[in-house]
Design goal:
Blueprint: H1 2-15, H2 23-30, H3 43-51, E1 69-71, E2 83-85, H4 89-106, H5 109-120, H6 143-146, H7 155-167, H8 173-187, H9 222-232, H10 237-244, E3 251-252, E4 277-278, H11 289-296, H12 306-309, H13 315-326, H14 328-344
Antiparallel strand pairs: 1-2, 3-4
Helix pairs in contact: 4-7, 4-8, 5-8, 10-13, 10-14, 11-13, 13-14
The structure holds protoporphyrin IX containing FE.
Residues 110-111, 113-114, 117, 153, 215, 217, 226, 243-244, 246-247, 249-253, 256-257, 259, 305, 307 line the site of protoporphyrin IX containing FE (HEM).
């Protein structure tokens, strides 16, 4: 009885007061105070941030948009011949160390994971042409894509990565986003992700995908919707469930997505900016508690989106969700494979086979 009451009231919340915000509130979400400006960003860039209609101006500087650079053989190419890689492997390794430092001070693991996912998750396997097919190509750095409703709040992730991009300018945005996400998973206690790098960046906002490629949290038929969206990316039921397990990290904020409570006992003191509603108690720890918690649905301070709940309702999804709730090792293995696959969707690698570090 207690369980059914809590589930019902949570679903009522999802369907009622906590539902998507009206347009005015959404607009407000975009005018939230931005994180403090790193010293290296010029005032003209910031001015541009407010006025540019087409691209996220902190990322407009031409020098950061190089597609490929010539590196010495020691950078990873064949001895004796200069190699043209999209990202310099040595710089990429150093960038990883800087991301680890950032994670230690800002506790921004969740938003970096979400950034990588939203860059890659626009991919359409039915479109052959790059970059029209979407995917992990760095297009999310442009304001036009950041302003898509699904990306509310992700400008903050870009601002966190900006100083690292400036320091290691040969590392492409597409690689940096995926590097940051995989590093965040690993540093939060998750599995090692078998990543490769060398992603080429799109060069302009005209190459951004149209709005509406990412999943909605409360569609009329969540299972059908998840399949429509993830099958379009070339992912299957197992990968849908495994990847949903990333919600073991982070919080939902009503002023961003319209979902979740403004704060709970687990989020009111941070770490990081306080507030929001998490899916798990320890929302900076990557483990299988997401599956255990949504299976139980006992704690009203924990979030269960309709697209989370359906993982235990749909017969095919349920097989994996039950397994992951029982067996963290299997979850970690499947998650790592699915995450790596997601990170490669729509990516054009240079060299074509990519490189690992
Ligand atoms: C299955 C469909 C999915 C839906 C409907 C969905 C929806 C959402 C929503 C509504 C939020 C709250 C955003 C906010 O208010 O700031 C969120 C956050 C998040 N999502 Fe998902 N998501 C999905 C899949 C994924 C996947 C595949 C990943 C990663 C592999 C992911 C990673 C995250 C993370 C880490 C957060 C927390 C962000 C933070 O704390 O700042 N999600 N998601």
């Amino acid at each position: 009885m207690a369980e059914s009451v809590s589930v019902t009231s949570r679903m009522a919340c999802l369907g009622g007061a906590c539902r998507l915000l009206p347009a005015a509130s959404r607009a407000k979400a975009y005018s939230l105070p931005l994180l403090s400006r790193p010293p290296s960003i010029s005032l003209s860039s910031v001015k541009c941030l407010r006025s540019s209609p087409s691209a996220f101006p902190l990322f407009l500087n031409r020098k950061f948009q190089s597609r490929s650079l010539v590196h010495p053989p020691s950078a990873g190419g064949a001895v004796g011949s200069p190699t043209c890689f999209a990202s310099n492997p040595d710089q990429l390794k150093s960038a990883r160390e800087d991301i680890k430092e950032l994670l230690k001070t800002k506790f921004c693991h969740p938003i970096l994971v979400r950034l990588g996912w939203h860059d890659a998750g626009t991919y359409d396997k039915n479109i052959e042409e790059w970059p029209r097919q979407g995917g992990a190509n760095g297009s999310l750095r442009f304001e036009i894509e950041l302003k898509h409703a699904a990306n509310a709040g992700l400008v903050n992730a870009l601002k966190l990565l900006q100083p690292i991009k400036e320091k290691y300018s040969t590392v492409t945005y597409a690689d940096l986003f995926q590097l940051a996400s995989a590093t965040a998973i690993e540093e939060a206690g998750g599995p090692k992700i078998p990543m490769k790098y060398g992603r080429v960046d799109v060069s302009g906002p005209d190459q951004c995908p149209p709005e509406g490629k990412l999943p909605d949290a409360g569609p009329p038929s969540p299972a059908t919707h998840l399949r429509d969206v993830f099958y379009r990316m070339g992912l299957n039921d197992k990968e849908i469930v495994a990847l949903s397990g990333a919600h073991t990290l982070g919080r939902s904020r009503p002023e961003r997505s319209g979902w979740g409570k403004p704060e709970t006992k687990y989020t009111k003191d941070g770490p990081g900016a306080p507030g929001g509603q998490s899916w798990t108690v320890q929302w900076l720890k990557f483990d299988n508690s997401y599956f255990k918690d949504i299976k139980e649905k006992r704690d009203l301070d924990l979030l269960v989106l309709p697209t989370d709940a359906v993982l235990f309702e749909d017969p095919s999804f349920k097989v994996y969700a039950e397994k992951y709730a029982e067996d963290q090792e299997t979850f970690f293995k499947d998650y790592a494979e699915a995450h790596a696959k997601l990170s490669n969707l729509g990516a054009k690698f240079d060299p074509p086979e990519g490189f690992s570090t």
